[in-house]
Amino acid sequence: LLLGAGLKVSEAVALKTDSIGEMELTGSVPVTITASMVAGNGMTHRSWLRPYFARDVQDWVEKRKSMAIPGIFLFPSTIQGRKMDRTSVYRIVNETFERAGIEKQREGPRTLRNTYAIRELESGTPIESVCELLGHKSPDATRRYLLKDPGLLFQ
User: Fold this and answer.
1) pLDDT in 10s for each residue of the chain, 155 residues
2) Quick check: 93 and 37 in contact, CB under 8 A?
3) What's the angle, vertex CA 61, arms to CA 78 and CA 53, rounded to 5?
């Protein structure tokens, strides 16, 4: 969801089972992030899980249901349904980058979010729309975020 929908780590770990919508005709799946889930300056917004990850997440939603995991979190840290810790996500992402041989100056979950935003812009999505997808309050925040280090694109 960090790469497929451009979510922050705090948003991804706080996703609830009802945060994921039904697949649209485009193959994308809406992801609803509420203000209560967001750390920092975020706001309630909707992002789109793009087709290249949508099926995997929908498969997980079905598997989670069949496992009868209690609780509300989409990605619990335990079979008892406890919320995943943000530091676990940082560790998992960095270990995955290492195993894949990805060497970026500032690798980590933010690299995945940046990549989502850059892919959206490169595909012609207007900056105002990318701003909404990322939950930014203004397009200026989106511009600054993307221009910090254009070398962060995960290829």
Assistant:
1) 899 999 999 999 999 999 999 999 999 999 999 887 776 666 788 999 999 899 999 999 999 999 999 999 999 999 999 999 999 999 999 898 889 888 766 678 888 888 898 888 888 889 899 999 998 888 888 887 566 545 544 44
2) no
3) 110
Cα separation, 91 vs 104, in Å, equals: 15
> Which is it for the CA torsion 50, 52, 55, 56, positive or negative?
negative
Please identify which residue in the block is written with the tokens 């995945």.
Answer: 112
Residue 7's identity, in one-letter code, is L
Give the residue carrying structure tokens 């809406």. Answer: 30
17, 70 Cβ separation under 8 angstroms: no
Nearest of 13, 155, 144 to residue 71 by alpha carbon: 13
- Contact assessment for residue 151 and residue 103, using Cβ atoms and an 8 Å cutoff: no
pTM of the model: 0.83
